[in-house]
Amino acid sequence: MGAGIAGLAHAYAEAKRGRRVIVFERSAKARGASVRNFGLIWPIGQPAGPMLEMALHSRRIWQEALDAARLPCFASGSLHLAYHADERAVAQEFAASAPANGYDCRWLEPEQAASLSAAANPSGLGGALYSTSEMTVDPRLTLAALPAFLEERYGVRFRFQEPVLAIRLPLIETSRGRHQAGRVLVCNGDDFETLYPDLFAASGITRCKLQMMRTSPQPGGWRLGPALAAGLTLRFYSSFRVCAALPALELRIAREMPDYERWGIHVMASQTAAGEITIGDSHEYGPEADFFDKPEIDRLILEYLATFARFPHLEIAQRWHGFYARHPVQPYWSVSPEDGVQVVTALGGAGMTLSFGLAETIVRQGAA
Ligand SMILES: Cc1cc2nc3c(=O)[nH]c(=O)nc-3n(C[C@H](O)[C@H](O)[C@H](O)COP(=O)(O)OP(=O)(O)OC[C@H]3O[C@@H](n4cnc5c(N)ncnc54)[C@H](O)[C@@H]3O)c2cc1C
What we know:
There is one protein chain. This protein is of the alpha+beta class. It has a domain at about 1-75 and about 135-205 and about 330-368: FAD/NAD(P)-binding domain (3-Layer(bba) Sandwich), CATH 3.50.50. The chain contains 11 helices and 20 strands. The strands form 5 sheets. Strands 4, 5, 6, 13, 14, 15, 16, 17 and 18 form a 9-stranded mixed sheet that branches. Strands 2-7-3 form a 3-stranded antiparallel sheet. The chain is globular and about 60 Å long. About 45% of the residues are buried. The structure holds flavin-adenine dinucleotide (FAD). Flavin-adenine dinucleotide binds near residues 25, 39, 188 and 189.
């Protein structure tokens, strides 16, 4: 249930095993976090060990599904650009231990980094952490096309505009009637109110609101190459917490950039198939996050972006926000509220990265 990336990944994993699958989706098409994100498959953000393995496994399944569905993706890796001594220290420390920890990344001197990315600002660049594992998909294109692929290739049936209102197996009650099912996977994103509201209320899960922007297409087929991030991102993903040099960077940012701390801003740039640059983001937590956007946040994001990236043009064509569900301590939330029902949500800021790998784990466990 749910035609966001988590629901589609579980439908794919079940259907590949020959099971009959129906996906119920509240909206006419996916319109949650899965179509509002950067489209970044970002293993480098996952801590070494099981989560990194899940992300890399997920990436392989993404590639397989996208190839089969003939959908575009850009396996161009990522660059974390360093402009301060403390950013260099974190990135270099991470790069030194990366191969032993399962990451495919290395430190680049400024000229090498600049040669990999026409968008990287060479002024003051102290080098970059280059990783080959990151991949960019076009979220809107992909989420719109995958249902048709799953339908044609695996016979998955989609019932859009049909919210699930209650589950009492073997019955599922929707807004349009009753259906029979042997097993239900509830991939409800950040809807905590419709199904199992008490369970969600007790879970500690909350919402996170993120502001995003997108340019119009860059001219002449200009391509970004590796997705870009910089110093602020080094303090955002838990993978970098192993670095002894990180606290100094965090302290400087807290001291010098309090507005970025306040709004949880770190800045990344990816590119869509049509050539637009997707830019974000901020993080405001709470079950009732403000749904009006803050121009100040967009301004801060664009100001920081200008310190590390340049594009043929920066004409903002779209602004939007998204919400995702997030558990306070777990990387995702998977519970079984009753026999035959599995809730899988709260993948936080890594749902695109993890969903296919997580779905394999969940479906395998369900089959055991
Ligand atoms: C701005 C932004 C940027 C991000 N960038 C990245 C990124 O680059 N890389 C990355 O890995 N992750 C990223 N994320 C996180 C990622 O997008 C999410 O973790 C992921 O999309 C969550 O997928 P989901 O399927 O759980 O939720 P959703 O995409 O929200 O889908 C849930 C679906 O379930 C449906 N639904 C809910 N309740 C019912 C019901 N009762 N009946 C029927 N249907 C129902 C909803 O209508 C919805 O379509 C980002 C998120 C945001 C918001």
